[in-house]
Amino acid sequence: MGTLPQLKIIGTCILFFIFSQSYIFSQTDVESLLDSLEVEIEKRKYPSLMISIVRSDTILFSGGIGYADVENKRKVDELTLFRQGSISKSFTALALLKALHDQGLSLHTPIKKIDSELPITNKWTDQSPVTVAHVLEHTTGFDGWHTHAMYNFTDSVSPSGKAMVLSHQNSLKSRWKPGTIHAYNNPGYVIAGHLVEVLTGKSYQEYVKQEILTPIGMGRSAFYFKRPQNVPIAKGYNLEREGYVEVPFVSIQGGSAGGLCANAHDMSNYLQFMLNRKGALIDSALFDESTFERIENSHTTLSARNGLKGGYGLGNFQVYQKGYVFHGHNGGIDGFSSRYIYSREADLGIAIASNTIRDVTPLMEYILDYLLGDENILPVDRAVVPLSKSEASEFEGFYVFKDLRILLRSPIMHFAGNFRFQYQNGHLYVKDLLGGIRDSLSYAGGNKFYRNIEKEPSVVFFKNEQGKQAVGIKRKYAEKESFVLNLFDMLSVLASMMISLGYLAYFGIWFLIQLVNRKPVIELRRLSLFMACISFPLMFFSFAMSVSDRITSGSLTIFSGMFFISSIIMVIATLWSIFQIRGIKEERWFNIYFAISTLAISIVTIFFISHDFIVLRLLSN
Fold first, then answer.
1. What's the DSSP call for residue 170?
2. Measuring CA to CA, how many Å separate 337 from each of 255, 340, 349, 354?
3. Does residue 20 or residue 368 have the better pLDDT?
4. What is d(CA 363, CA 44) in angstroms, rounded to the nearest whole number?
5. 487-to-16, 272, 437 alpha-carbon distances in Å
6. How far apart are CA 579 and CA 189, in angstroms?
7. Confidence band (pLDDT; 50, 70, 90) for 577?
8. Residue 595 pLDDT > 70
9. Would you say 330 and 361 are in contact if contact means Cβ atoms under 8 Å apart?
10. Residues paired with 85 in a beta bridge
């Protein structure tokens, strides 16, 4: 009779010891963590770091280290605002959810039902109209690569949401059936901000402030179009050879996608809101358990519809860290980088931001290593199902990622980034083109797999709507294709580029010989092919230079003008060279070389056209 009470007492003591040690660790080691972080940001060249670390019932730290203003040595504190970039999307999603709820609408509502004049193009409208859920999950198929509407240099106050949408209309074309593939893009969240304005009759800045930020406890945060005055805000910097160079606060043409400024105090309150799934002043009738589950999980992708949890929900993505499932978002905007994550399993939330564009993910990893240990532990409670060779044969093969906007990365980098699945010893291995193992998958049943040491399946195989074998890996989507045909396509384009560049060398030598021999140097057929061949390296160079400066990337510059002109010349000169082939009557060996070179530049031109790289919009409206 005395044994059971004694066991209860011992068990209680053990639990008390465990939890008390966790609490002591959390309180006493934060100062040590901050000391080590100061050394880390100095080593990694970050001017400062905004830091929020919380548990569901405790704010462990809210503040910062380093300098918000390097020149004047002004330090970061918990009230110093940082531009948050794409973290803004998490709050725009919350605002649109509330606006829909108040109007009796849902995530399944087609966006053209809210504004019938939206300038979107979707050839699948009849069977799959673009819905609010598609917008918030980035499954519209819209193109986020156009840089012509990135910045606003003309307005002194924020334009309406509708005006911002119109400036992005060249991107608002569904490249595939909405609700199938996740492809991150900013224009969709510009539409989300506009929908908030249509539904509420208020500016999205005002509505988000009143209905989301203030009730959560983020009263000092806001969406800013211009640099706010009379409030503590960090200056953004780029690291140059001469040191930190200040980056101006440039207005973006899409504040609902990236205009939030927040501080450590407010982000701490937000993290606790997401951990506890409630707030004292927030609408609990809307933000209940089911709403948070929906926020944290994708429903519209093919992967989600085939049973994969997580992915990119409503302004919120899932990541697996240190044996726990975390949710969050990251952001980057001129002179700033940010990231927040939280896990109800770990009872931990962290938000950091730095006043430099350099990615803060390594610093987040450093903090997680410090708090949760630097080793990933294999979960003991996941259900692994035996996988036979015959079952695996359906999944094996070469797979190609299908975010169709691959631009300059194709064909070489894109091809090299693809992979094959191969069965071996009861596991399915992810291998690169040279046979190196990238990852190992353990079977969870139902065509789903665990990656490496993750405790929840993050890979699912399925047949797409065309009956083709496909795979979803977290937020990515790939289709099974022929390795040989893909290799042939890649080598064809690569060889055609090399032949075209070779013609430039030939033309240079021929031109010098003509000068030395004092012969006429103008020959239209040679010149036209030269103009076609010189255009594509000029396009590469001018495109790279145009987008390297984020501030001027949407404006008319020497490089954006060069890109536009060279892409036009490439098409015209290639067509002219094709017509010249039939008219050649002499110089047999040159005629053959001319025909081969013309075929090569034609392949390159077709490749660029098929990937929308010809006359890509780089200029503002």
1. G
2. 16, 11, 18, 5
3. 368
4. 9
5. 61, 50, 20
6. 46
7. very high
8. yes
9. yes
10. 259, 260
**Considering only CA atoms, which of 484, 500, 493 is closest in space to residue 410?**
493
- A 10 A CB-CB count for 236 gives 25
**Helices 524-548 & 483-516 angle (0-180, nearest 10):** 120
Would you call 435 helix, strand, or coil by DSSP? coil
Number of other CB atoms surrounding residue 372 within 10 Å: 17
What pLDDT shows up at residue 552? 54
Is residue 407's pLDDT more than 60? Answer: no
Cα(320)–Cα(444) distance, integer angstroms: 17
DSSP 397-432: EEEEE--S--GGGTTHHHHHH-EEEEEETTEEEEE-
pLDDT of residue 406: 44
What pLDDT was estimated at residue 70? 96
Q: What angle do CA 430, 435, 438 make, to 5 degrees?
A: 35
pLDDT of residue 149: 63
Q: Span 279-289, mean pLDDT?
A: 83
Instruction: For the chain, give the longest Cα–Cα distance.
Output: 115
d(CA 65, CA 50): 7
Residue 94 contacts residue 192 (beta carbons within 8 Å): no
- Average pLDDT score, the chain: 87
pLDDT value at residue 348: 95
Give me the phi and psi of 313, to 5 degrees please: -85, -120
